[in-house]
Structure formats: structure tokens, C-alpha cells
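Final report, closing paragraph on structural work. Over the funding period we assembled a curated collection of sequence-structure pairs, and we close with a single example.
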Amino acid sequence: MKHIYMTSLLLLCFISGSFSQERSIKNIFEFNWKMDLLNSFYDVIIDSPVEPNSLILEPRWIKKGRMSCLLPLFQARSPYSEISIHLHYRTENISELYFTLVAFDECERVLSVDTLHFPLSDDWIDLSQTITVENTMFQELFINASADTLRMRESEAKSGVVIKDFDVWFDGKQINLNAVPRARTPLSKSDVTPFDSSDLSNLPFMEKKILAIGETVHGTETFNQIATDIIKERILRHNCRLVLLELPIEISFYINRYIVGDPNFSREYIIDYFDNLLFCSYIFISLVEWIKEFNRHSEERVYFFGMDVWPGDRIGYLDSFDFFYTLNKTNNDETLKEMGRLLLGESSSIEDVISLFDANQGFENSLTKGESKLVRHALLLLRNRLTTPELRDRVMYKNIQFFTENFLPPGGTVTIFSHFGHANYRSHLMRMTTMEEMAFGYYLRCRYQDDYSNIALITDRGSSLLGNSSRTRFEKKELQSSPIGSIEYLMNRLNMDAYLSMDRLTCSDALTIRTIGNAPVEESFFVFPKMRMDGAIFIREVSAIQKNEDRMNKEVHSLLWFLERRRQAQLKVGLPAQTEPFY
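Its predicted structure, as stored:
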């Protein structure tokens, strides 16, 4: 029996190819399923003793479970096509089971939304349902199931959809999930701008008020360097006064204190902190130092902020503690000490922390007005922090908005560096559209229109630094060659590093794009590039981030890293703590 308590990441891993068990449920594993973040299935059971050769999907209590995949229909030979869904299944304590089919034409425009309801039965049902679509390039297919909460209360039983066979037929044939799209717009060298990081003056996006640089591959020195080169250029010549990175917001307190020259806030702490984050290299330490030096000679200050949030709140508490503890090294203020104890205390709540902060007028004698606003904003985020990443991009958008409203001077610009999956103009890459799960770039585009620009960093080959499968250490991985039908393949044929404006593509150009985050999973997803970005910087070959040898050889689970940091913090303030290190 293979029993998995699902997160969206685990579902991605086992259904996209890392699941090694022999496939016993016909065809269902061929589809690249993605778990819905807001309504994920609570449990997924594969090949249980009770239901051999089956997949069991259990919805969450009260909420429905939902997962989706993308079907490439651009392979149709006629404007009208038939889509048939075949399902061999039974249900247990389910109130509804249905498939939602969202049809897209060029430019990711929604053509139609169809719903196919499947009858509920404790006995096995073998059923196919068919719809007709017109001029459809892609179809997003959702499986939706809701628990029958009344019956579950009465019987205290679990609910689930048990699937023995699943398939999709397209114009009478099994759908080709590996169909290769081809750009309708051929590219030549005259269509691109040669890219040279030592001369960025000819790039058309440098004047944008809010510019996001979205790397498609985490963990490369090359992309880190390009991002910092663009950031410096915008600071020097385009009035950039806000630099935002995909880092937790709480580390911003510490870094900006170091930038203004507070001697209590050390460079070594920032180095150690960055060393434990996968996509941060020494290049960002150099950027912090460069901004520090720039501010010494500038009338307008440049701020360096993290705009992200940890998925849980406890590391955010620790980051906040480190700031207040370091701040109090000189002040020796009893109330600041109490803030630290509350942030570490087992019995204290974030409400206690916020109440103490407000009762002391935001520590106006120790913090600047801007710092006080920032700290209170971050404390409120801790109060509302989610245990799942379901609203992560919305929170990042709110953070960007907060920084822009409170720290950006008139005429100033903002530069953001993050993964392309967050910065693009639509949803996360695995979906055409899901209004509940849009990228922060979608919200910025809606608010700022053309004042917000997203530029992707893409590559054909090289290496990157990834976490291993157990997330206990960093490993260097070689990138796969870019596949035919990808934007990387299209650019690589030009045999040069170059910038491609999306003005050169059309809404008919549907391509795949590579994406690698923190997990050791490399995938390509279908997108209409013109709808996701203003342009792409293509680098033929990239190299992995270099960490120090001790960090590369150290095998530490993230939980142990957190516990050791917490242990050391408790010892600093005299709270009961384990005396032996956790690793």
C-alpha cells in the first residue's frame, strides 16, 4: 500500500514522473495533474489492500477536492472537435463528482466552460461523456469532488472517489499529451537584441516603474548575476529606490539596519542566513554591500526588502526575534527584551507581541518611522500567516504594494527578482487560468497596467543548485536540453545570448517553457509567451550557485535547522532550552 498525505508538491512529484511504482491505474498517471492549492484533496491513496489497482481521492472536510491538468488541443485537424472523458469508478460518501472543462483559444482567452456531472454510486460505474469544442488550442480539465458531510457525521466514515480507469479521447483517438507545438512566427537574428550584461542601455524595459526579473530556473549564479547587473543599472540610471527579492519579509529588518551602518548588525549573520537559502549566492551579499556604499553618497536612499513569507509562522518569529535581540545590544531596553521573550515563548501569542509593540508606540525611540511601519506590517502577517502556501502570491503582492506606498519616493522605480512562476502576468505556470491562484504578477499588472513589466530569464543548458529529494542538502544538477517546441529551443537555434521582445511573437505562438523551483523536479509547461511577459533574456548556458564546501557537505533537515536556531535564541535570553545541538 502506498499511502500519501498530499501537498501540491508531492502530487506534482509522483504524478509527473518521480513516482516509481508500476502503474496499475490505466492512463491516469500519464496526465500532468496539479493539486488545487485552495481545495486540495486531503488524501490520495494508491493501490490499497481494500481497493487494489485503484487511485482513491479523499476530499477535505467540508471543502471540495480539486486537481487539474492541461490538454493540448492545438493538434486538432478541424475547427470542431469532440472531447470524451472515460471513467471507471465508484464513490463513497460523496455529495457531488463533476469535471470542469475550460476551453482556451489564442492569447489564453476563455472560449467556454463546460461541466460534466458523473452519477454517484457505491457500485462500480463505467461511463463516458462527450462535449464538442470549437477553435480550441488548450483545455484545462478539473476533477472536482465534495464530501457528503452529513453522511460522514452520521457514520464517521471517510469519503472518496475510487478510480480504476481514466482516459480522455480526442476526435475518436486517445489524446496525445506530448504533442509538440510549433511557433507560427519564425525567428531570425534580426528579431532579437544581442545581450551583453556590461551594456544594458539598449534594453527597452529599463525605464519601467516596476520591473520584475523572473528566473525560470532557481539556483544559478548566472541568473543571479544578470539580475544584480540590471538592479545596479536601474539604481544608477533609472532612479530605482526599491529592490525586492523572493526572501522572507522579516530578514528586511536586519539587512536594512546593516545597510545604514548600524554596527550591531553584522555582515556575517547575513552571509550565514543567505547560505541556508537555495537560490541566494554570494552575489546578493555583494549587492547588499554595493547598495550600502551607494547610499553613503546618495541623497535618496535605496531600500532592500524581502517580499516573500515563510509558509509557516515560526521561522518568521525567529527572524523577528533576531532583529529585536540585535537591536537591543546597545539599547539594553527591558521592553525590547520582553519582545524577544514573547516571540520565543511557547505560551505567548502574536497578539501579545502586537499589543506590546503598540503600547510602546512602535518603539519610536529605537526604530525609525519607516521601520516601525514595516515591523508592524510584518507582525500582522505573522498573525494571519497561513499553514499552507495557498495565498502566498496574494501576500507577496500586498507586500510589494506596501513597500511602494511607504518607501518609494516620487519618481522612483522598483526592481523585483523572483521566480518567473510568481512574476508572470497570469497564473502559476501549470495552469492557463485559475482565478483563486493567480501569480503576484497578475495582480501587479491589473493595478499598474503598463507600468509593471515582467522579463523572463531563460536558458538552454548548464547546471543549477537544487534541494535533494529529502530536502536535507543541496545538490548540483545538470539541466536537460530544451525540448522542441519550447521558447528555449527557439532561441537556442539563433546561437547567441539575446533579448527577445514579445512584440516579435503573436497570440498564436503557443510554446513550452522550462521551470525549476526549489524541488529537484524539472518540467516544461505550455504557455502563450506573449500573455506572460514583455520579453525574455536568453542565455545559452548557465552555471550553478556555488555554496561553501561545509554547506554543500552538510545534511540538515529544515526542521532541525529551525530547532537549532530556536535553541540558540532561547539560550540567549535565558529561556529553558535543550542544551545539546540538534545537529
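Residues 1-24 have pLDDT under 50 and may be disordered. The radius of gyration is 25 Å. We thank the funder for supporting this effort.
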